[in-house]
């Protein structure tokens, strides 16, 4: 099987496992946690796991592997960078609303925040992610981004991007584990806990797929196309002009 | 800074952060958890976090990045494969004893096992690791390992190796989080919880360093030396014979 076919197979599995994680966390909170609301109640808390898993883990993972899709290699990298940045921004917005949901519930119910390791790891994930997004915008997209800065930043961008996913994975697993302890402190495994544990295992599987896709050397965008790291937004317009000129000729 | 210098700097940080994790988990259990014993008491439980973090995370991480050390690239790969396999076996033994410690305490104190997501993720890590070690032995070290099988297995070996580290990270963070909930259920952050949370953040930092080192293309063992994937143990002897012959000539 060629590199391209084996990529598409893995990518397809990755996307389906990711979507299944979202479906499962929605079903968990709809079926057992009283559904969804925005009134400071426990039903508002339901938004927290749903938005964190959808944004900080699944959408983030989808956006992370985007440059590996062979279909995009023959196209302008700048277009894929914009889609990457857009998906990441959507992931960041979902995660931020997910954080707000839980802080708001805590303040309404007079529960303190930020004492557990789960909260420390999760907050580190979101703060690092926000910083990463901002640096990515300045380094790779804005017209002011310099070629030299982009080249230097790329290594850090890849490394930090992996760190966010690791933080996110650890936050999701510890969060599910913590919530089940709150609910079933007396060492039992009712249907809800069984279901949420299975969601936890799927979350690790999804993260492994994302890391697997990222690590495979054959699946990287070929070098020929990666020299335009610093292609800032203004180049879109100049490249469009070039195309028009070519047509005219 | 050259690829080699920047590798050694990152490797040095990685090793120190890993060792600090071990020192911190020992100190935590010595200072606040009643120290260490092997009598079915809570002091026996102390061995669980110490052995899992030392074996399944830190030693495992050290062994995972071993082939990236440039110093070893000019040497026979088979020697480094034996060190890699040896360190991994030590890590697996530590993790197995660490599992036994907690199952034994649970059975003495009549506490059920394997109901939490932490236990599911942790057990998946150890079982996947044991299977991975066995497959590695058969595929890359035993005299019977065929070149074709080795080549096919290598991609899976790298992928599964990352999955074990992800499972291990998630198990460590959810385990610390869970233990602190057992101890301080009433939303507080005493010195012990503060210390253990800091350990948790360091654990994520260590994992990020390992993944960062593994992902950097410049730090991979050059292709020229990686064609001997299937170099089985018998080749050590044949290569030694070759050396002796050279000397005699």
From TrEMBL, chains A, B:
<keyword id="KW-1133">Transmembrane helix</keyword>
<dbReference type="GO" id="GO:0005765">
    <property type="term" value="C:lysosomal membrane"/>
</dbReference>
<dbReference type="GO" id="GO:0046872">
    <property type="term" value="F:metal ion binding"/>
</dbReference>
<feature type="transmembrane region" description="Helical">
    <location>
        <begin position="7"/>
        <end position="30"/>
    </location>
</feature>
<comment type="subunit">
    <text>Homodimer.</text>
</comment>
<feature type="transmembrane region" description="Helical">
    <location>
        <begin position="50"/>
        <end position="70"/>
    </location>
</feature>
<keyword id="KW-0967">Endosome</keyword>
<keyword id="KW-0408">Iron</keyword>
<keyword id="KW-0472">Membrane</keyword>
<keyword id="KW-0325">Glycoprotein</keyword>
<feature type="transmembrane region" description="Helical">
    <location>
        <begin position="163"/>
        <end position="187"/>
    </location>
</feature>
<dbReference type="GO" id="GO:0031902">
    <property type="term" value="C:late endosome membrane"/>
</dbReference>
<keyword id="KW-0812">Transmembrane</keyword>
<keyword id="KW-0249">Electron transport</keyword>
<comment type="function">
    <text>Transmembrane reductase that uses ascorbate as an electron donor in the cytoplasm and transfers electrons across membranes to reduce iron cations Fe(3+) into Fe(2+) in the lumen of the late endosome and lysosome. Reduced iron can then be extruded from the late endosome and lysosome to the cytoplasm by divalent metal-specific transporters. It is therefore most probably involved in endosomal and lysosomal cellular iron homeostasis.</text>
</comment>
<dbReference type="Pfam" id="PF03188">
    <property type="entry name" value="Cytochrom_B561"/>
</dbReference>
<feature type="transmembrane region" description="Helical">
    <location>
        <begin position="193"/>
        <end position="214"/>
    </location>
</feature>
<keyword id="KW-0813">Transport</keyword>
<feature type="transmembrane region" description="Helical">
    <location>
        <begin position="82"/>
        <end position="103"/>
    </location>
</feature>
<feature type="domain" description="Cytochrome b561">
    <location>
        <begin position="13"/>
        <end position="215"/>
    </location>
</feature>
<keyword id="KW-0479">Metal-binding</keyword>
<feature type="transmembrane region" description="Helical">
    <location>
        <begin position="123"/>
        <end position="142"/>
    </location>
</feature>
<keyword id="KW-1278">Translocase</keyword>
<keyword id="KW-0560">Oxidoreductase</keyword>
<keyword id="KW-0458">Lysosome</keyword>
<keyword id="KW-0349">Heme</keyword>
<dbReference type="InterPro" id="IPR043205">
    <property type="entry name" value="CYB561/CYBRD1-like"/>
</dbReference>
<dbReference type="InterPro" id="IPR006593">
    <property type="entry name" value="Cyt_b561/ferric_Rdtase_TM"/>
</dbReference>
<dbReference type="GO" id="GO:0140571">
    <property type="term" value="F:transmembrane ascorbate ferrireductase activity"/>
</dbReference>
<protein>
    <recommendedName>
        <fullName>Lysosomal membrane ascorbate-dependent ferrireductase CYB561A3</fullName>
        <ecNumber>7.2.1.3</ecNumber>
    </recommendedName>
</protein>
């Amino acid at each position: 099987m060629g590199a391209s076919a084996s990529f598409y197979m893995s990518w397809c599995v990755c996307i389906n496992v990711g979507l299944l994680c979202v479906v499962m966390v929605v079903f968990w909170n709809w079926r057992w946690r009283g559904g969804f609301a925005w009134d400071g109640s426990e039903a508002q808390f339901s938004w927290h796991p749903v938005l964190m898993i959808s944004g900080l883990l699944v959408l983030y993972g989808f956006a992370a592997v985007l440059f590996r899709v062979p279909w995009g290699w023959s196209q302008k990298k700048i277009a894929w960078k914009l889609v990457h940045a857009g998906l990441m921004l959507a992931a960041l917005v979902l995660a931020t609303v997910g954080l707000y949901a839980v802080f708001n519930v805590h303040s309404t119910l007079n529960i303190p925040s930020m004492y557990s390791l789960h909260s420390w790891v999760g907050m580190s994930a979101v703060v690092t992610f926000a910083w990463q997004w901002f640096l990515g915008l300045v380094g790779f997209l804005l017209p002011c981004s310099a070629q030299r800065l982009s080249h230097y930043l790329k290594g850090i961008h890849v490394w930090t991007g992996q760190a966010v996913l690791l933080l996110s994975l650890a936050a999701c697993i510890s969060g599910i584990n913590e919530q089940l302890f709150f609910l079933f402190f007396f060492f039992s495994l009712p249907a809800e806990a069984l279901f949420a544990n299975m969601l936890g295992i799927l979350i690790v599987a999804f993260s492994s797929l994302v890391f697997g896709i990222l690590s495979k050397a054959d699946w990287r965008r070929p070098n020929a196309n990666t020299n335009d790291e610093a292609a800032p937004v203004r180049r879109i317009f100049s490249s469009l002009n070039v195309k028009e000129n070519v047509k005219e000729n």
